[in-house]
């Protein structure tokens, strides 16, 4: 019999078994929503709420690149008003963006699965479970916050698992900086989980499941890469 404790373990060690169990426990999506999204939003809130408004403003100015002193002063005036709200804005944005992206991904999965056994709501729950690697992303970020010498850390601190921070170390003015910062390795883990789910729910062969699970992410990142390069 499927149990919630087994589900929380299997999503990381035996994802195909998880999705086999979810066929009979489709209402568990809210658990995945908490561990994959709400928890990450709360840790992000913690990250930004510890920063001083002055630090946030100067970090944002630095990210603007080569601007004139007049332009920097004008931007600083606006940013000083919004800086105290950075933490709640970031947390709410994470939740809303995740819900929207999952809404689109769920529709895509229902389309490519070619099965009527599962409803759109079932696939939405599926997509939330596929995001569970973000639980470890949140734990890693929380640990880094605890170990930081000061709460005033770089604004991109939350992207510690990005391709840029792990491997490339591109400067902020590099054409591929934003792309490399957005390429989070936990997203690849999520694709692995989703592929296991497609093998269970849609009876796909492994190669087909991996291709279809990762196609939206790779299409977005591939298009972004080409635009940045050319």
From TrEMBL:
<keyword id="KW-0812">Transmembrane</keyword>
<feature type="transmembrane region" description="Helical">
    <location>
        <begin position="126"/>
        <end position="148"/>
    </location>
</feature>
<feature type="transmembrane region" description="Helical">
    <location>
        <begin position="27"/>
        <end position="48"/>
    </location>
</feature>
<feature type="transmembrane region" description="Helical">
    <location>
        <begin position="176"/>
        <end position="198"/>
    </location>
</feature>
<feature type="transmembrane region" description="Helical">
    <location>
        <begin position="210"/>
        <end position="229"/>
    </location>
</feature>
<keyword id="KW-0472">Membrane</keyword>
<protein>
    <recommendedName>
        <fullName>Yip1 domain-containing protein</fullName>
    </recommendedName>
</protein>
<feature type="domain" description="Yip1">
    <location>
        <begin position="10"/>
        <end position="226"/>
    </location>
</feature>
<feature type="transmembrane region" description="Helical">
    <location>
        <begin position="85"/>
        <end position="105"/>
    </location>
</feature>
<dbReference type="Pfam" id="PF04893">
    <property type="entry name" value="Yip1"/>
</dbReference>
<dbReference type="GO" id="GO:0016020">
    <property type="term" value="C:membrane"/>
</dbReference>
<keyword id="KW-1133">Transmembrane helix</keyword>
<dbReference type="InterPro" id="IPR006977">
    <property type="entry name" value="Yip1_dom"/>
</dbReference>
């Amino acid at each position: 019999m499927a149990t919630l404790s087994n589900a929380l373990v299997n999503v990381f060690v035996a994802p195909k078994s998880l999705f086999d169990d979810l066929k009979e426990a489709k209402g568990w999506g809210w658990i995945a929503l908490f561990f994959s999204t709400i928890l990450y939003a709360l840790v992000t809130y913690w990250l930004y709420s510890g920063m001083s408004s002055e630090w946030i403003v100067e970090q944002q100015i630095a990210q603007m690149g080569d601007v004139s002193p007049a332009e920097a002063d004008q931007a600083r005036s606006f940013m000083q008003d919004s800086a105290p709200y950075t933490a709640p804005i970031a947390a709410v944005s994470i939740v809303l963006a995740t819900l929207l992206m999952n809404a689109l991904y769920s529709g895509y999965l229902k389309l490519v699965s070619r099965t009527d056994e599962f409803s759109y709501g079932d696939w939405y729950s599926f997509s939330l479970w596929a995001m569970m690697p973000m639980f470890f992303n949140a734990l890693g970020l929380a640990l880094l916050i605890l170990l930081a010498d000061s709460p005033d850390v770089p604004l991109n601190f939350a992207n510690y698992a990005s391709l840029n921070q792990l491997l490339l170390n591109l400067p902020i003015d590099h054409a591929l900086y934003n792309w490399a910062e957005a390429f989070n390795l936990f997203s690849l883990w999520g694709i692995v989980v989703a592929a296991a789910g497609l093998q269970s729910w849609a009876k796909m062969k492994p190669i087909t499941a991996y291709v279809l699970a990762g196609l939206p992410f790779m299409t977005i990142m591939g298009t972004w890469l080409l635009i940045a390069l050319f």
